[in-house]
Amino acid sequence: MVSLMPVNMSLKNVPDGVYARLKKRAERNHRSMNGEIIDMLEQTIESEMNELALQMRLDKLHASQKCTVSSDEIVAMIRRDRDSR
């Protein structure tokens, strides 16, 4: 990871309910609101990167097999199975 200078950002038009839930979450985690938002952003980006890596591994596996089911269909099946639990 490349270390860059921090960037200042601001959020506008945050709904009251979202603000209240975020404030409670930050308090629960013993963080400032800013720290909580940064943590949430990092977790979301990490999760997306992991999902992309999984998709790439599935695509590679699919290409190496004579599979008639696409990797998108496999992911959908896995999600349906998880949601059914």
Characterise the protein shown here.
The protein has 85 residues and is mainly α. It has one domain. 68% of the residues lie in helices and 0% in strands. Helix 1 packs across helix 2 and helix 2 packs across helix 3. The radius of gyration is 19 Å and the shape is elongated. The two termini are 36 Å apart.
List the helices and strands and how they pair.
Elements: H1 16-28, H2 33-64, H3 71-83
Helix pairs in contact: 1-2, 2-3
Largest sheet data: none
| Count, helices | 3
What is the string of SSEs from the N terminus onward? HHH
User: How many beta-strand elements?
Assistant: 0
How would you sum up the global shape? elongated
Alpha-carbon distance between the two ends: 36 Å
Query: What structural class should be given to the helix and strand makeup?
Result: mainly alpha
Arithmetic mean pLDDT: 87
Work out the count of structural domains. Answer: 1
Summarize the structure.
By secondary structure, the protein is mainly alpha-helical.
